[in-house]
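Notes on consecutive records. When two proteins share a document, each keeps its own sequence and its own token line. Never mix them. Below: protein one.
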Amino acid sequence: MKFKNIYIAADIEGVAGVVFYEHFDKDMSMLNYELLHRNRVLLTEEINAAARGAFNAGAEKVVVHDNHRDGYNIIPELIDERIELIHGRAEQHFSMGLPHPDLDDNMDALIIIGAHAKAGTVDGCTPHSLAHTESESGQIYDFSEAAISMALAGDCGIPCIFIAADKATVEDAVSLNQSLKYVITKKNYASQVTRTISPLLSRKLISSGVIDAMKNSVSEPFVIKGPCTVRVADRNPSVLWPAKPKKCNTFTDALNSTLRNVPWYKPVDKIDDGWRYPDSLRSAPDTKWNIPGCDK
């Protein structure tokens, strides 16, 4: 099969050299800032390596979705000029029913870079997030974010052909697709203690691995046969939301339904970022800077 249009789903915890992700703003210091920036550089360069491999193997388009936290981690000015980047606030595209914007039947293959282990994984890197899926036919899965991406792609008829992540995450993904090509970037002893390969080596292996996948992959789309339900967890895999999930015909529909019924969900028309005028919740944009006392 000829893979021309490639979609890369990017996270950060599974990148070589990353042990844990950035601290929140309230904990920011020069050290934490340097950690945040360093992790972003490491992620960006693994994305570049995957894209180079794809283009060298004949891809005509590579679209990358920056899918970690606020979706603003990949450094735009450092990416390969041929990449098209989707980035920005995750709560907005989730509320619009687009877990991976533009992941549709116009794409030929999915590649996953930097994925992390699902919640409850003892030997996974910063393990969190889990989607508990049950189909009417009796299939039961506990999905990592990587497996979620594989299933979303499967609903569009798109195979996942390559993944680069920590050992636990790769093994989990391969259990769903034995033909999946992969690079193991590190193994974890605990959630934030890891034995990593060199980032330079990781990039070489990712580039060559993507070329191999593009030329030799026999992966089929991973499809959850509906109707099915999805419940999700964050850190604790035994606490699932919502209590009564809606049964839907596809995994994508079930996931979107559930994401609208979790404690942290906020509809897009309730996300007041102060920029969307005239549909902002405010009647008009502020006339003063948002700094106390600046109008005096």
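Protein two starts on the next line and is unrelated to protein one.
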Amino acid sequence: MSPAAAGDAPDGILVESLTKTFRAGQVRALDRVSLAIVPGEVFGVIGPNGAGKTTLLGCLLGFLRPDAGRIAIGGRAPDDLAVRAATGYLPERLSLDRWMTGLDYLRYQHALARLPAATRSADAAQALAQVGLEPAAGRRRIRRYSRGMLQRLGLAQALLGRPRYLFLDEPVSGVDPEGVLLFRRLLSELKGSGVTVVLNSHQLEQVERVCDRVAFVRQGQVDSIETLAAGAELSRVLRVRVAAGAPLPGEALAAAARDAGAELVSAGAAQASFQVPGDAAAARLLRALIAAGIPVVEATAEQGRLERLFMEAAGGRGAAAPTRAPGAPPDRPAGSPGEPGGAP
């Protein structure tokens, strides 16, 4: 299914000409934003601070009322009870009842969501295990949780009720490497089960690894929407490292680059850099280097695809945040609940 057809699909998300202002119109946080998200897609939102990303998330969640435009989630408004019942949300700023145990908190959120009481304890324990928290952690008071454990608990509550729509705001902030790997695996499983995920994050490497498409937002507008697979055709610098002490003959390196349709940029004591026009050329280059007897041990891009796209969209420099009037609200859902929370 094409992204353009998302609005016509039963579970798609459609945003049309969305505009949101603050301070009686003095601050334009979103300016005629339009996009379509396919059911079962992991859709990323990136951009500089103050670009309008969290305001967009607040509108999608129904926390903020737009000034103009339309949002349809599964053909319904974001604040429709049927949509909220099918929505999970992990906010960037977690505010939890720290006197509760982890399991108590999940059972409480389960009850607020009006999920079946008969399965409450079992569902809470399953959600805890799903995010890699041990039963002992569930019996511990939340005030004794580390930052990473708090983030996992917030994700666990967002997954209660098996939502069809999952909105994640900086989900791996403060999470250790093991938790990051778990997060990637969970998103892969959720995507496989048809869950539609909207992910807002500054961690470009993680966004690149898990998202199907990414919107770059700047000054309240969508500058571009990139399909990550298309990044395979983007030109970039590939750094190739060789075994310690191995010679790096310049003529052999240049010849391998020419055969692959690449260009030798530089060569040092243990590594060389090449300009390659895409993944296919990178693969040809590595084959040519190995065939020439050069002991390649590692090849990495100098920039990730999203980092490169981010810099290109920003004009090769840090984009300036939009000017805010004095006292204007920060870029977060105004009036959003303190608890990370699934729909009531």
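For the record: The longest strand covers residues 27-37.
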